[in-house]
Amino acid sequence: MQFSSERERTLARALGLCTRCGDPLPEACAFRWCEKCRAVQRPASHAFVTRRRKNRRQAGLCIRCGEPSDGRIRCRPCADEFNAYQNERNRRIREGTWRD
Ligand SMILES: [Zn+2]
Ligand SMILES: [Zn+2]
Q1: pLDDT for 23-64, tens place per residue?
Q2: What's the pLDDT at 91?
Q3: Ligand 2 ion: nearby residues, β-carbon < 5 Å
Q4: Would you list the DSSP string of 6-45?
Q5: What is this structure's pTM?
Q6: Nearest Cα to Cα of residue 23 among 14, 36, 10
Q7: Distance from the CA of 65 to the center of ligand 2, in angstroms?
Q8: How far is 49 from 74, CA to CA, in rounded Å?
Q9: Domain parsing of the chain, residue ranges
Q10: Residues 69, 75, 78, CA angle at the centre, nearest 5°?
Q11: What is the 68 CA–ligand 2 centroid distance (Å)?
C-alpha cells in the first residue's frame, strides 16, 4: 500500500499503520514507519548526520546545535544534555529496560 496524500498518511498513522508501506506497526510504536522502512531509510540519514557533524567539528562548532563550542565537541548545554542522556541510558541498560 502506498499513501499519496498527507490526509492518507494521517489516517494510516491513526490506524497504527506504517505511513510508508501500510504494514501494521507494533503496538504503541513511536515511529511513523515500520522496522523495514526505517531500515531502508537509516543509512541515508546517518550519512547526512555524520557529514554535518564532521563539518561542524572542523569549524569548531558544537556537533549537535552548531553553536560555537570553545573548541569542544559539544557546547555546554548540549554536553550537559548528552551526559544526562548517557547516564539515563546506562542506568536503563543495567536495568535491562533500554530500547534503542
Ligand atoms: Zn513500512
Ligand atoms: Zn550545542
Answers
A1: 988 776 677 888 888 888 777 777 888 899 999 999 999 999
A2: 95
A3: 62, 64-65, 67, 75, 78
A4: HHHHHHHHHTTB-TTT-PBPPTT-SSSS-HHHHHHHHHHH
A5: 0.51
A6: 36
A7: 4
A8: 15
A9: 1-41, 59-100
A10: 160
A11: 8
How far apart are the C-alpha atoms of 74 and 71, rounded to whole Å?
8
Task: Give the distance (Å) from ligand 2 centre to CA of residue 90.
Answer: 22
Q: How far is the CA of 15 from the centre of ligand 2 (A)?
A: 37
Cα of 29 from ligand 1 centre, angstroms? 12
Instruction: Calculate how far, in angstroms, residue 61's C-alpha sits from the geometric centre of ligand 1.
Output: 36
What size, in residues, is the chain? 100
Supply the pLDDT for residue 86: 94
